[in-house]
Design goal:
By secondary structure, chain A is of the alpha+beta class. Chain A has helices at residues 31-47, 53-66, 81-104, 106-133, 148-164, 170-183, 199-233, 238-270, 285-301, 307-320, 347-353; strands at residues 2-5, 20-27, 68-70, 73-77, 135-137, 140-144, 185-187, 190-194, 272-274, 277-281, 322-326. The chains are: A alpha+beta, B alpha+beta.
Chain lengths: 359, 336
């Protein structure tokens, strides 16, 4: 027997069968409240010429984490502003060097770019570690096992393979990435396990590709028609018409990403387990794509003012489609042996890059 | 003494316990006491606790120094408790500012003003200061790199014959002499997609395309173009444009921070807008420079105007970018 609970979970026991609770993630915050926090902290950041940005980021993330609730308990974000600021200053310095090098000599710029590319798996690992370690639920921290060898294998092995095969290996690359990220994560002393099958990734890719091709053909048709109308009317096409294909392709791409992500995340979450508990995700491709499309248009139209609204809108949907199927008691988790050593070298620098592949 | 209900997590397991939390003032410090039925009460220095672990909403999250966490559902009561003990005034102020719409709107107005001020005044001022600091060697290396790129991607070797090139070279030299500039040189290229156009590189190299030479009906038209391009060199427009774009991107990233998909879209906008606005300003300055030379040399204004009109008529679909980075034609013809 299983029951579906919203806030306080109650297990229903039946002799002989283990108790299964379905715990629903929720987002309790509001776009209005997040906007107020976001804009006040943005103003403070601008006034302090960017120094306050680390405090602003911590404050925003603490709001978003704190309003994310599972089984009646909220998540916590433990990032420390000073450490984040140090990391940001270093990363900023590196960025300036990269920019200047690129301007002075195209070769130097290329070398800098290659170095950055070579460092990418390292940055991804450090960044993931930072994000997991700074997140907690019910007082226990998440963690991430650093496995640089594996990271390089995934990026330079599967990544390059997907380029070489002109994208055919891309779904497998995405699968390996997610598997790496989730599979090396842990909550307290319990490790996550993630073993998604390959098929859903290819299905998701096909759907997304189909949509993208269809959208591009539609855009081509519309642009040709508009161009014909303009030219035969004797007018000049103008800047707007030249921008139209680029903007439409951007939007089509955004929608394709939504379709792809829904399929892949459902597969990843659905095969993720933590001890005796499993995750369950039922993201809807068109719905997620519509969300992304709306968000992109809103952000462009509002010159960025609607970013907080878009963030909340997306987060709320992502959480509403995520549940935990708890086969055991959720009180059973125990802290990891070495209590979280807060941010070692490189994590705060990597934090700036905030690599986000939608986990 | 007010005790508040709270949920307690000991940081060693994921068990949730109900508890009561109180604040009291010892000799010099404020202490936080957590009472959990069945466990020993624990007392912590308030200043060792992370009081703003949770932001906004109704619930307050507090991090305890021993690794435990408290969730206080009645946030307002907690805030007043803190106020009564005079603690964390700045934090409470920030929290109450974030709660009020008027503050948010004020913050919005302030942000918009600061961003506008930075782009419209801050960046140009910084660019002016920085341009003076850049040594000629840098100009030369950037120009060399730029020319290599242009030759590789855009241009083809010129088809003008040696005689015509020599003639134009002499014209160019005389205009340069009139303007008292001697560190400029003229190069010829076939423009292909770029069509009829002229460019000025940071080190004083001026490039005219075969197509522009063909479009000109009179030598003075080309000499006006030379003056215009020399104007770009004199005012160091190319370097300023480069600096402005770099500065704007750097500023956008520093201030609008977190590099994520959403904000990348937004940070690109100020850079593009600023670049276009800058370009138009630079073109106006170069036009003024050209006009100044034309008056000095006794060349009628119409020479430049005629060429511009012909350029506008000539520009097809691949050349719309010329129009958006230059001021509107009517404005250029009327001039100052």
């Amino acid at each position: 027997m299983e029951t579906i609970e919203a806030a306080a979970p109650a297990a229903v026991h039946s002799p002989g069968t283990p108790a299964v609770q379905r715990l629903q993630f929720e987002f309790r915050g509001s776009a209005a409240e997040y906007f107020r926090i976001w804009i006040v902290n943005l103003a403070l950041t601008l006034v302090t010429l960017g120094i306050y940005s680390a405090w602003a980021k911590v404050r925003r993330l603490r709001y978003l984490h704190g309003q994310t609730v599972l089984a009646g308990s909220a998540f916590g974000y433990h990032g420390e502003p000073l450490r984040i600021l140090k990391g940001r200053l270093i990363a900023f310095g590196l960025f300036i060097v990269y920019l200047v090098a690129g301007q002075l000599d195209p070769v130097a710029g290329l070398v800098a770019g290659l170095l950055l590319g070579a460092a990418l798996p390292w940055l991804v690992v450090k960044s993931l570690r930072f994000r997991f370690r700074m997140t907690s639920w019910r007082g226990l921290r998440f963690d991430f096992r650093q496995d640089f060898a594996r990271a390089y294998l995934v990026y330079f092995g599967w990544g390059i393979l997907s380029v070489v095969t002109l994208g055919l290996a891309l779904p497998q690359f995405v699968r390996k990435l997610h598997q790496f990220a989730v599979g090396h994560a842990s909550y307290g002393s319990t490790r996550f396990e993630c073993t998604p099958p390959l098929a859903p990734f290819y299905w998701a890719a096909l759907k997304a590709l189909g949509f993208l091709v269809g959208a591009m053909l539609a855009v081509l048709a519309v642009v040709t028609l508009l161009a014909y109308v303009f030219v035969s009317g004797g007018g000049e096409p103008g800047v707007a018409l030249s921008l139209l294909p680029a903007v439409s392709i951007l939007l089509a791409y955004v929608v394709a990403v939504g379709v792809f992500q829904a399929g892949t995340l459902n597969a990843v979450y659905g095969c993720t387990s933590l001890g005796p508990n499993r995750l369950h995700s039922d993201l809807n491709g068109p719905r997620l794509a519509w969300l992304y499309l709306g968000n992109t248009l809103a952000i462009i139209a509002s010159l960025g003012l609607l970013v907080p609204w878009a963030t909340v809108r997306l987060l709320r949907y992502r959480l509403a489609t995520l549940q935990v199927e708890a086969m055991g008691s959720i009180d059973d988790f125990v802290a990891a042996q070495q209590a979280g050593i807060p941010g070692a070298a490189g994590e705060e620098i990597a934090e700036v890059f905030d690599v986000d592949f939608g986990l | 003494m007010t005790a508040l209900d709270a949920r307690y997590y000991d940081g060693r397991s994921s068990v949730r316990r109900d508890s009561r939390v109180t604040l009291d003032r010892g000799r010099d410090f404020v202490w936080l006491t957590v009472e959990v039925p069945g466990l020993e009460a624990s007392r912590h220095l308030l200043q060792s606790c992370t009081v703003d672990l949770g932001v906004g909403g109704d619930t307050r999250m507090i991090g305890l120094p021993d690794g435990g966490t408290l969730e206080v559902p009645d946030g307002r009561a907690w805030d007043s408790l803190l106020a009564r003990h005079g603690q964390h005034a700045r934090l409470r102020l920030l929290g109450s500012v974030e709660r009020h719409w008027r503050a948010a709107l004020a913050a919005l107005a302030l942000s918009a003003t600061l961003i506008w001020a930075a782009l419209a005044h801050g960046v140009p001022a910084l660019v002016d200061r920085s341009v003076a600091l850049i040594p000629p060697a840098t100009d030369a290396s950037i120009a060399a790199g730029g020319l290599k790129l242009l030759d590789a991607q855009l241009f083809a070797p010129t088809r003008l014959d040696a005689g015509r090139r020599a003639e134009l070279g002499r014209s160019f030299a005389s205009v340069a002499a009139d303007l008292g500039t001697d560190d400029v040189r003229l190069l010829f290229r076939r423009g292909r997609e770029v069509g009829a156009n002229a460019f000025a590189l940071p080190d004083g190299t001026v490039i005219v395309t075969d197509e522009l030479v063909a479009l000109a009906a009179h030598e003075d038209e080309l000499r006006a173009v030379f003056a215009h391009e020399i104007g770009h060199v004199r005012h160091r427009h190319a370097m300023r444009a480069l600096l402005a774009t770099s500065l704007t991107s750097v500023l956008s990233i520093a201030l609008l921070g977190d590099v994520s998909a959403a904000t990348t879209l937004v940070t690109g906008v100020p850079v593009t807008l600023a670049h276009a606005a800058n370009s138009r300003q630079f073109e106006r300055e170069a036009d003024a420079f050209a006009r100044h030379w034309m008056r000095q040399a006794g060349v009628p204004d119409a020479r430049f105007g005629d060429l511009l009109e012909r350029l506008e008529r000539d520009s097809g679909s691949g050349r719309w970018n010329y129009l958006s980075t230059h001021p509107p034609l009517a404005e250029r013809l009327s001039g100052d």
